[in-house]
Amino acid sequence: MSRNKLFILLLAMxxxxxxxxxxxxxxxDIDVESLSACTADNPLTIASSLPNLGFPFFVxxxxxxxxxxxxxxxxxxxxxxxxxSVPKQTADVEAAITQGVDAIVISPLDVDAMAxxxxxxxxxxxxxxxxDRRVNGVDGILAHVGADNxxxxxxxxxxxxxxxxxxxxxxxxxxxxxxxxxxxxxQGVHNVLDPVADKYPIIFEQTANFARDxxxxxxxxxxxxxxxxxxxxxxxxxxMALGAAEAxxxxxxxxxxxxxxxxxxxxVAIQEGRLTGSIEQQPGLQSRTALRIAVDxxxxxxxxxxxxxxxxxxxxxxxxLDQAERIGEVE
Length: 331
Prior knowledge:
The protein contains 13 helices and twelve strands. By secondary structure, the chain is of the alpha/beta class. It is 45% helix and 17% strand.
């Protein structure tokens, strides 16, 4: 039996305790019918902005925002793509402010660089809901809806410790510098592994910017520079994990790889044993919840009971694939 398959079996003990991630009831249970009744008399224009629609993760989020807007009805949705560029995403938000949109739902590319323009939107009286990625230093953000990314990173590290109770060498692919998820997932991994660094040393750590091609190239270079392969690879998203899997396969190695996002392609890789697991953060639920909060405030004037809504992440393995939000997209 290969190491990956053995470790997948061991993960069954972890996944028994996994539960479906749910938003707090006050956010998740916003009555869509009441929203529809309100927008029927008060049509809204809402701008959505995602960091980079070149990533399947953000394409899914955008499609879920659009589907929710259609379900509510009488919403003109202005969809924009930040194209992995702070100036581009800033210009998109400035355009939305000029157009006088009723609300903005945005995943900020950078936690700090996007703050000035979002503060400008808030100061102009436009409700702003951040999604997936937070922003720092903006007073008056209506709400943030996302996964608990720190906890997700912690679960990745706890999984490593469960797979290797006697210790392991860890190869760590970090996310995009300056992004909320990249910062938080990195913190989560270190929260767990740093206190036990003697048993679980991180022998290689470098950003691959959430990109698959960089996940491949950074893993190739990193493995070439080590005297012996690591026991496990952990990546801050699935694109990097899938790139790492290509590098590992090309070298004929058998190394457990843990990703983050539970993308459909990653779910297939888990089925086939090329990935050991991936963190589910329910991006569709994040997207739908964020839009409902924005509409409820813009149309009804209702503020959410919680300004920060974090969904609890879970580890998806071959034993609980049915709990993945996007399992229906896997053929």
